[in-house]
Design brief:
Layout (H helix, E strand, L loop, with lengths): L3 E4 L2 E4 L2 E2 H8 L3 E5 H14 L5 E6 L6 H9 L3 E4 L2 H9 L7 E3 L6 H10 L3 E4 L2 H13 L4 E8 L21 E2 L3 H10 L3 E7 L10 H19 L6 E3 L18 H12 L5 E4 L3 H4 L3 E12 L4 E5 L8 H5 L5 E3 L10 E6 L8 E8 L7 E4 L21 E5 L2 E6 L4 H5 L9
Parallel strand pairs: 4-20, 5-6, 5-13, 6-7, 7-8, 8-9, 9-10, 9-11, 11-12, 12-13, 15-17
Antiparallel strand pairs: 1-2, 2-3, 4-14, 14-15, 14-19, 16-19, 17-18, 20-21
Helix pairs in contact: 2-9, 5-6, 8-9
The structure holds pyridoxal-5'-phosphate.
Keywords: Amino-acid biosynthesis, Decarboxylase, Lyase, Lysine biosynthesis, Pyridoxal phosphate
GO biological process, one term: lysine biosynthetic process via diaminopimelate
Pathway: Amino-acid biosynthesis; L-lysine biosynthesis via DAP pathway; L-lysine from DL-2,6-diaminopimelate: step 1/1
Length: 421
C-alpha cells in the first residue's frame, strides 16, 4: 500500500498534486511519501512485536538524509555497507549503537571509522576480514561485537544479480565451515562473538527460501552454543520483495515474514535484527518524468521521456518491470496504445519497457514510474552529462526538495583542470 493515488482526476502524493511539484521542480525527479516510508517501517517493527528486535533499514536502497531522518525518528537502526553510508547514518542522527556494518570488503579505513564513531556490530564476511577487524579493534583498545555472515547455500529464486545466498556467491562463509570460523573468532582479541548473520538475496516473493535459511541458522545457533559460543543475536537480513506490477503479484507481507521468524528462531531466546530496504522505500517513491516526443518508428511507437537509464537503471540492469502511469487520470475505458518507453540516452539499453500498453499520451504529458523508491536515486548517475536527478519528499500537504538538481556549472565544476594543462 502507498500514498500515491488519483484524486480529482490527477495523481497525488499524499495531499499534494504531483503535477504541481513537477511544474515547480522540473522533471525528472524522485518523489517520496513520508507516510508510506513510516507505514512500511512500522509494519516490520510490529511484525516482530513480542521479541527483542531492531529493524535496521538497509540504507543502500535509498539513503537521502531526509529519508534516514524520517526513519531514525521512528527508532529505526541502519544497515550500512560502506564508510559513506556510515557517515550518512551518523549525519542523520543515528547513534552508533543502532548501526550495523555489512558488506564483503570492509576496508581498514572503514573499520577504523566505525570503531571510532561507535558501532552496534560488524557483520563479518570472511576470515581475513575478521582478522583485520580484530587487529584494528585491539590496536584501538576496543572490543567490538561481531556476527559472522553464513552462506546457507539456499536458492532465493530471485534475479541472479540480487541472489546472495548460494554457495557460488561471494557473500558470507560457507555454513558447513561455521564451527571452524567461529572457533577462530573466539580466539582473536578485540572481538565479542555475539551472533549469526544471514542475507540470501533481494526481491524474494516467496517465504520458502527464508524458511530454509532461518532453519539452518536456528540449527547452527544450537551447534555453536554447544561449542561454547554465547550466541544471543541473530541478524536475519532483508530481501522481502514488493509488487512491481500491481495486477499480478502478491508477495508475502511483513506480518507473514515476522510470523515466519517467530516460528523458526523464536524459541532460541535471541535478539533479532532484520535489514529490510526495498520493502520500506520501494513503494514509497515515484520517478516522475515528462514526455518529450511521441515518435512513430517503422513498426512501433516510441514514448520518449526526459527520464533515462541514468536516472533509473533497474530496467536496464535487472530487466525490472515498473508500472508507468499517466499523472492525469485516464478516462475509464479509454483505448490503450502500445509504446516502447525510452529515455534520450545514447544506448539501446535505455529502454524502460517494450510494447507497454498505456492510455494514449502526448508531448508534455507527465508520467510516474511506480515502485521506484528503492535502488532508484541511489543508483543514478550523470551519464550523458545529465545532471543528477533531484529528490523531493512529501509529508501531508507540503513537500520539500531534499536534493536539488545540480546546475550545469555545479556539474562541470566538480572536475578540476591540472595546472599543467
Ligand atoms: C541489500 C541488502 C539488504 C536489503 O535488501 P532488500 O532486498 O532491499 O530488503 C539487507 N542486508 C544486506 C546485507 C544487503 O546487502
Amino acid at each position: 500500500m502507498d500514498h500515491f493515488i488519483y484524486r480529482d482526476g490527477t495523481l497525488h502524493a499524499e495531499d499534494v498534486p504531483v503535477s504541481r511539484i513537477a511544474d515547480e521542480v522540473g522533471t525528472p525527479f524522485y518523489l517520496y511519501s513520508t507516510a508510506t516510508l513510516v507505514r512500511h517501517y512500522r509494519l516490520f517493527d510490529e511484525a516482530l512485536d513480542g521479541m527483542p528486535h531492531l529493524v535496521c533499514y538497509a540504507m543502500k536502497a535509498a539513503s537521502n538524509q531526509a529519508i534516514l531522518r524520517t526513519l531514525a525518528a521512528e527508532g529505526a537502526g541502519m544497515d550500512v555497507v560502506s564508510g559513506g553510508e556510515y557517515a550518512r547514518a551518523v549525519a542523520a542522527g543515528v547513534p552508533g549503537d543502532r548501526i550495523v556494518f555489512s558488506g564483503v570488503g570492509k576496508t581498514e579505513a572503514e573499520i577504523a571509522q566505525a570503531l571510532a564513531g561507535g558501532i552496534r556490530q560488524f557483520n563479518v564476511e570472511s576470515e581475513p576480514e575478521m582478522q583485520q577487524i580484530s587487529r584494528i579493534a585491539a590496536q584501538m583498545g576496543k572490543t567490538v561485537p561481531i556476527t559472522i555472515r553464513v552462506n546457507p547455500d539456499v536458492d532465493a529464486k530471485t534475479h541472479a544479480k540480487i541472489s546472495t545466498g548460494k554457495s557460488e556467491n561471494k557473500f558470507g562463509i560457507p555454513i558447513d565451515r561455521a564451527r571452524e570460523v567461529y572457533a577462530l573468532a573466539a580466539s582473536l582479541p578485540g572481538l565479542d562473538v555475539i551472533g549469526i548473520d544471514v542475507h540470501i538475496g533481494s526481491q524474494l516473493t516467496d517465504l520458502a527460501p527464508f524458511e530454509l535459511a532461518y532453519r539452518k541458522v536456528a540449527d547452527l545457533t544450537e551447534v555453536l552454543r554447544a561449542d561454547g559460543h554465547d550466541i544471543r543475536r541473530l541478524d536475519l537480513g532483508g530481501g522481502l520483495g514488493i509488487p512491481y506490477a500491481r495486477s499480478n503479484e502478491t508477495p508475502p507481507l511483513p506480518s507473514d515474514f515476522g510470523a515466519l521468524i517467530k516460528r523458526t528462531v523464536g524459541h532460541l531466546d535471541c535478539e533479532v535484527e532484520i535489514e529490510p530496504g526495498r520493502l520500506i522505500a520501494g513503494n514509497a517513491g515515484l520517478l516522475v518524468s515528462r514526455v518529450i516526443y511521441v515518435k512513430q518508428g517503422a513498426d512501433r511507437q516510441f514514448l520518449i521521456l526526459d527520464g533515462a537509464m541514468n536516472d533509473l537503471i533497474r530496467p536496464a540492469m535487472y530487466d525490472a518491470h515498473h508500472d508507468i502511469v499517466p499523472v492525469v487520470e485516464p478516462d475509464a475505458g479509454i483505448e490503450q496504445v502500445a509504446y516502447d518507453v525510452v529515455g534520450p540516452v545514447c544506448e539501446s539499453g535505455d529502454t524502460f519497457a517494450k510494447g507497454r500498453t498505456m492510455p494514449p499520451l502526448a508531448a508534455d504529458d507527465l508520467v510516474a514510474f511506480r515502485s521506484a523508491g528503492a535502488y532508484g536515486a541511489v543508483m543514478a548517475s550523470e551519464y550523458n552529462s545529465r545532471p543528477l536527478v533531484p529528490e523531493v519528499l512529501v509529508k501531508g500537504d507540503h513537500y520539500a526538495v531534499i536534493r536539488p538538481r545540480p546546475t550545469f556549472d555545479e556539474m562541470i565544476n566538480r572536475d578540476t583542470i591540472p595546472a599543467w594543462l
